Amino acid sequence: MASVLVVEDNPEHQAVIAEVVRRLGHTATLAGDGREGLASAVAARPDLVVADVDMPHLDGIRMCRALREHPATATVPVVLITAYLPPGDTSLASAEADAVVPKPFSVRELSDTLRTCLESPPPRHDPAFTEALLRSLDAGVVACDLDGRLVVINQAVRDFFGDESLGVPARDWAETFGLRRHDGTPLPPDEVALYRALGGEELRHDGVIAHDRQNRRRWFAINARPVRDAGGNILGAVAAVHDVTAEHHQHQYERCKTEVLKALVHAPDADRAGTEVLRAISGELGWPYLRLWLVDPVTDRLRPAATHLAEGAPPIQLPQVLERGEGLAGTCWAGGEPIWVPDLRAPDLPVVVEAEHYRAAMAVPVRSADNVIGVLSFFTVEHQEPDPALTVLLSGIAGHIGGYLERRRAEELSHQLAASIGEYIALVGHELRTPLTSIGTYTDLIAEEDDKTTVGEVRELLGVIERNNARLRSLVERLLDLSALEAGHAQLTVGDVDLAAVITEALPDAPIRTDLPARLVIPGDRARLRQVAENLIGNAVKYSPDGSVVHVTLTSDDDAAVLTVSDSGIGIPSGERDRLFARLYRATNARHSGIPGAGLGLALSRAIVELHRGTITLSGNDGGGTVATVRLPRRSGTSGPARPGHRDETLGGNH
Questions:
Q1: What confidence score (pLDDT) does residue 651 get?
Q2: Which residues of 330-349 are buried (b: 16+ CB within 10 A; e: fewer)?
Q3: Do the Cβ atoms of 360 and 379 come closer than 8 Å?
Q4: Which of 618, 655, 625, 600 is nearest to 545 (CA)?
Q5: Cα dihedral 391→397→400→401 (10° resolution)
Q6: Residues 92-110: pLDDT tens digits?
Q7: Distance from C-alpha of 290 to C-alpha of 404, rounded to nearest angstrom
Q8: Is the keyword ATP-binding assigned to this protein (predicted)?
């Protein structure tokens, strides 16, 4: 009988996994989050750990890494369960889990996986198999003897550093191949991971930068340790070299989006915005020369609006005016599509660019609606292959600059700039897979019951299925409603609405302190405005502690009615306020609070408010909690039939 540690913050899924473990004949120990699970595993080493990926305090990936780093749990098999990340995600691979089970899963699938991890003996391989395995590995593997001479170097390392790398001693790799730390500083010879492992150190995720044969930078994470005999004597050292360039770029692009967002939000005017955006892009991506060109509406030519030259970088003598189709920026303007020039020294370039000292260049159009109003151009001293993710990032930034220049609406840009279709799809998958997992697994449990089992004996299991089915149905209905509003397919029924009466009708049976006028009439759709009031007041009550009072006030001036809902609840975590109004996003503290929610209330409210030509904002309460503020126009004729609103492309949303 084996001991299995189950680490899962969803009580329903935790119960299912524990039941599967017991049906396999083993004992299950339960933990509600990653931090608790890690402590339990270190205190009493289990035979197997089954952990969810998305957990509070310490997620499953980081917990798995911590288990691998601790001597007492380094060899414990780990099964990760995820509804948020696909099984092939690089972060899952870096956790070194023994198996990954995607949600939704069936009882049989989970049983087979756990049985394999608990009962299958480790395979034995002959030397020929080991040699073939080393050749086929994507990760690099190098090993040296006690004198630092390389005795093993697999094909992945040779492909990058060349066949001659086998003759380079471990200590000489830094100088021979120009290795650098991840911060860009030179790597001293004594800090080479393999050399340090010879001294008895064990290293995990040691960061190194190296250049490939095309002089492109690659980021590596190295795990290294000494090789010891049965008596503990060091015989040599071995290192695994993982190419983490894609992961590095992903984080780099996220930081770039954040810095551009800050620049746009804090810029006092359009001129300053362009300068600060270029500085932010240069600082995060490392490109020394950037220029923002804008179309002069009088002359219909491109003129530079902002230029950034990094300190110590050579200048470029670019024209001050470009015709359509002239040079890199003019060609991008004419075609309306991004242009990459990976190597300015290569023959048959798509466009002639005179830029001495620079190796690669790129340009992306700046748009306002369907019109190209400018171009962002970039120059770097290194070879730069076209990168689809980077193209999407820069095209998005260029689009937001165009929107900023046309609308000067930094709040709307803060939502648009944080857009990530991949993350939105992941959130949809998470919200659908979680109830589907409960429905599927509890159905499996009922199906496996004896034929003599009565309905009463499985009523609790049926209740879980019914509850999750209702959750799915509500989620789909609200998503369809939101899509109809955003696409302009839903129509507002506009008339004179007493907003004070609507708010009064929306008040729940809970402690609410109101300050409402006797009557306040605005043009709008009564049912939709009540929906907004119910969402905001309901959120305030739901996320406030028992006994606290929610404050609802309604004021007005000549132009607008102002509804304010304030609470002293759990509030919004720092750094997540930019992501509050997009569908399906829930703040991290709310997602792990056990309070039900789909992350659609604020997205629906924002769509409705914008269709009324109003605004909705969230801010922190001085005493803790959240303040929601809605402004709606009072004048007749300022609201009307539903139309496509300003689409929310951020991944922020309800808590």
A1: 22
A2: bbbbebeebbbbbebeeeee
A3: yes
A4: 625
A5: -120
A6: 766 788 888 888 889 999 9
A7: 19
A8: yes
Please check whether residue 601 is in contact with residue 654, taking contact to mean a CB–CB distance below 8 angstroms. Answer: yes
pTM of the model: 0.40
Q: Give me the amino acid identity at 489.
A: H
| CA 289 – CA 143 distance, rounded (Å) | 41
The H or E element that residue 264 is part of is helix 245-266
Q: Is the pLDDT of residue 139 over 80?
A: yes
CA distance 546 to 631: 29
Nearest Cα to 161, choosing from 148, 179, 144, 143? Answer: 179
- pLDDT tens for residues 10-67? 999 999 999 999 999 999 999 999 999 999 999 999 999 999 998 888 889 889 988 9
Q: 539 and 533 in contact (C-beta within 8 Å)?
A: no
Indicate the helix (H) or strand (E) that contains 62: helix 60-69
Strands 560-566 and 626-633: antiparallel
Q: How far apart are CA 583 and CA 577, in angstroms?
A: 14
What six digits make up the tokens of 513? 């302190």
| Closest to 35 (Cα-Cα) out of 46, 24, 27, 43 | 43
Candidates 93, 137, 122; CA nearest to 239 is 137
**CA separation for the pair 277, 267 (Å, rounded):** 9
Alpha-carbon distances of 620 from 553, 569, 576, 600, 623, rounded to whole Å: 16, 10, 12, 20, 9
Query: With left for phi above 0 and alpha for psi between -120 and 50, is residue 575 left, alpha or beta?
Result: left
Tokens of 445: 């449990």
CA–CA distance, 44 with 409 (Å, rounded to integer):
56
* Alpha carbon distances (Å) from 381 to 180, 215, 286, 323, 384: 17, 10, 10, 26, 9
| Residues 78, 46: Cα–Cα separation, whole Å | 10
Distances 576 to 85, 456, 654 between C-alpha atoms, Å: 20, 45, 10
DSSP 106: -
HSE, side-chain direction, 13 A CA sphere, residue 355: 27
What is 370-420 written as a DSSP string? TEEEEEEEEEESS-----HHHHHHHHHHHHHHHHHHHH--HHHHHHHHT--
Type of residue at 440? G
Residue 396 has pLDDT above 90, yes or no: no
Q: How far is CA 47 from CA 2, 55, 114, in A?
A: 6, 22, 11
- Taking the C-alpha atoms of residue 407 and residue 412, their distance in angstroms, rounded to an integer, is 9
Strands 78-82 and 48-52: parallel
Is the pLDDT confidence value at 414 over 70? no
398, 366 in Cβ contact below 8 A? yes
Measured between alpha carbons, how far is 61 from 83 in angstroms, rounded to an integer? 13
d(CA 19, CA 597): 27
Which token pair is 18?
Answer: 């524990």
Q: Which amino acid is at 429?
A: G
Strand partners, 579: none
Question: Can you name the residues that pair with 309 across neighbouring β-strands?
Answer: 289
Tell me how crowded residue 1 is: count the other CB atoms within 10 A of its CB: 8
Is the CB of residue 22 less than 8 Å from the CB of residue 44?
A: no
Q: What is the mean pLDDT of residues 553-576?
A: 81
pLDDT in tens, 357-393: 888 899 999 987 778 889 999 998 887 788 888 888 8
Q: Are the C-beta atoms of 44 and 21 separated by less than 8 Å?
A: no
